[in-house]
Hints:
By secondary structure, this protein is an alpha+beta fold. It has three helices and three strands; from the N terminus they run αααβββ.
Amino acid sequence: MTPIIILTLVLMWQAVLVGYAFTLAGNAADEGVRAGTAVPPGQRFAACQRAALEDLSGSWRQGAEVRQCGGTGMVTADVYLRVPVLFPGSIDFPVTVHGHAGTVEEVKQ
């Protein structure tokens, strides 16, 4: 019975890591969009990428990727994170989770 309990706990922990990866990816995309709307369009991607990756810890940042951040009128960001196996910073699954955020660009008049 003990191996079944241990296996169940390991699977539950892995499910928690997958959910946490989705949460981190969504938050990183939100932070990136927020920073992207505060700068001129030419500087948008760099500011967005920096803000998106800033709050991620080192082990989560290793597999993180900001693929898109920008737009005209509507600023969007897409952040992809790798899902770790049991512990962040160890082996990663060949699966990434996607976080997407968008907001309307405010025009100062």
